[in-house]
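Operator note (shift B, R.M.): manual run for Phosphoribosylaminoimidazole-succinocarboxamide synthase requested after the automated queue skipped it. Running by hand, logging everything below so the morning shift can see what happened. Input copied straight from the record, untouched. If output looks odd, do not overwrite the archive copy; leave it for review.
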Amino acid sequence: MEKREKLYEGKAKIIYATDEPDKVIAHFKDAATAFDAVKKATIKGKGALNNTISSFFFQLLNEKGIPTHFVKKLSDREMLVYKVEIIPVEVVVRNIAAGSIVRRLGIPEKTKFSPPLVEFYLKNDELHDPIICEEHIYAMNLAKPEEVSKMKELALKVNDILKDFMEKQGVILVDFKLEFGRKDGKIVVADEISPDTCRFWDAKTGESLDKDRFRFDLGDLIEGYKKILEKIEKGEN
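Run finished. Output pasted below as returned.
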């Protein structure tokens, strides 16, 4: 596998071409951002932790029959993934009220949602990733109705898998964000699944083990991410 030119650089990752046209390398950076990148920091070791955690979760999903872009983990900071056309819609699944939904709707924090809530957000930094409905998706030609239906279906299946797995490790999956891509005409889970994109609470203590530690100064970010890694590795064994 030959690593070639840089194709794209975002806030958390750099994407490189490879000598195989259908595959790219995702390199995880140590950058941490919050509140539309108003708060920024470089946190040594964050990229390696997110790569390892994401690789674990993608492998778990692949084994459960969920289509993803993940091929394999290459190194501490890099994974090999299929090249996909990213759909500019972020899908958020909420099991418990936290974060923006509390501020937007006044729903008391820690309210449990049954069934889980599914929300769509426009992936657009300039517009601050606004919440949108399915009709907006169709009006802007972002995805077809059958694609949106598949994204929602997969998001809820991912929720079932991750929620069940994390509960066994003593961790509550509060909510998470997924991105999807098109590969050979099919919808697959893409981007990453990590404490950057999920809210994890310790089931016993309620301690935040995700990026909220950075957002709201709740504790050392690396310590929280390491706890997640330790718990999932324990679950694997």
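Quick read of the result: The mean pLDDT is 96. The CA atoms of residues 109 and 160 lie 22 Å apart.
Leaving this for review. - R.M.
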